TrEMBL record:
This is Large ribosomal subunit protein uL29m. One of its GO terms (molecular function) is structural constituent of ribosome. Its main location: mitochondrion. It is found in: Mitochondrion. One of its GO terms (biological process) is mitochondrial translation. Pfam families: MRP-L47.
């Protein structure tokens, strides 16, 4: 009770003093005494309060094509500093939000979205930036601790026997006592129904690969017949699963037979 009697008059005096001070004066005083380093260290937004940052420049509205550059490659990003990468990430994030907004607006108005490949380039740039940052983190942790510093993971099967890469998470409750986690994550499978599903699933994957391999082979044969002088090295790089040289020899034999049969018929 004695403590409350001492605090009560002090609080009353403090409330009276604060009531006499204007809010704008307090805000102005805080701005004058604020440290320069604490005021918006990184900013990519102009000093305006409208929503036009989510839209493209007005001169690009209604255009069929918008001029743009290429995406950021890993080699370009590796020579940048960490602060530059930090700022570039927010620039790319704003660009992605703007493009998504414009794409949605064009769909609502049933208009053509100009240069949709910009979204792919921004996405590729952000993925490359994340990979470069991950490389630097791995190098730092391997130098300091001898480990990568990334979350551990392993390839495990699910309840249907399909294998996937699982990344570990930190939990407060240990694994042996975490009932909900053990019920949700079961890395085992069994039963005749599951084995039958796996057999049919693998058969489907094999058929898809076989059909894709046959389509690529037929396409290579068609190209070799139509363009006999095509660059076979480039063709082999374009279709790595096809033996281009073997098909080229077979195709040359067929062409020779056709030429000989044509010449013999003409001589008779």
């Amino acid at each position: 009770m004695n403590i409350l009697k001492n605090i009560l008059p002090i609080s009353q005096q403090l409330s009276k003093c604060l009531a006499t001070v204007n809010t704008q004066q307090v805000f102005a005083t805080l701005q004058r005494h604020a440290a320069p380093s604490s005021v918006r260290a990184i900013s990519t937004t102009a000093h305006r309060h409208d929503l036009m940052q989510f839209f493209d420049d007005k001169k690009n509205w209604g255009e069929q094509e918008v001029k743009h550059g290429r995406g950021w490659t890993k080699d370009d990003l590796r020579i940048k500093s960490n602060s530059d990468l930090h700022q570039l990430w927010f620039v790319l994030l704003k660009e992605r939000n703007m493009l998504l907004t414009m794409e949605h607006e064009c769909k609502e108005k049933m208009e053509l979205f100009p240069s949709p490949e910009r979204l792919d380039k921004v996405k590729e740039s952000m993925e490359n930036l994340e990979e470069v940052v991950r490389e630097r983190n791995r190098a730092y942790y391997e130098l300091e601790t001898g480990e990568t510093g990334e979350r551990p993971g392993k390839v495990v099967p699910n309840e249907l026997g399909i294998r996937f890469y699982y990344r570990a998470f930190e939990h407060v409750i240990p694994k042996y006592a975490n009932r909900k986690w053990n019920e949700r994550h079961k890395f085992t499978f069994g039963g005749s129904a599951v084995w039958k599903f796996l057999r049919l699933y693998r058969e489907r994957l094999y058929n898809e690969k076989r059909k894709l391999r046959n389509r690529e082979r037929n396409e290579v044969v068609h190209l070799l017949r139509r363009f006999p002088n095509i660059d076979r090295e480039t063709l082999a790089q374009r279709f790595p699963t096809v033996d281009v040289e073997k098909l080229y020899k077979l195709d040359k034999i067929r062409m020779n037979h056709s030429v000989k049969s044509g010449s013999s018929s003409s001589s008779t």
